[in-house]
Design a protein that fits this description.
The protein has about 60 residues and is mainly α. About 50% of the residues lie in helices and about 10% in strands. It has a two-stranded antiparallel sheet with strand order 1-2.
Length: about 60
């Protein structure tokens, strides 16, 4: 088992990374670098992924 903060998995975390999750990470950082524009302009899945990534990123910056 691997754990970090509130997240844990029962298998190697690298096996949980999919091409789609890498795409979302790349899109998220591009979105942030471009000024984190309007979420309503994104499709629902991307917006949901960005909100989750933003929350996790903020918690990791605050030591959470």
């Amino acid at each position: 088992m691997w754990a970090r903060g509130r997240v844990w998995v029962e298998e190697c975390p690298t096996s949980a990374v999919t091409p789609k999750s890498v795409e979302w990470l790349e899109k998220f950082w591009a979105w942030k670098l471009a000024g984190a524009g309007e979420l309503m302009a994104l499709n629902a899945r991307d917006a949901d992924a960005f909100l989750i990534l933003e929350q996790e990123w903020r918690e990791s910056r605050n030591g959470g």
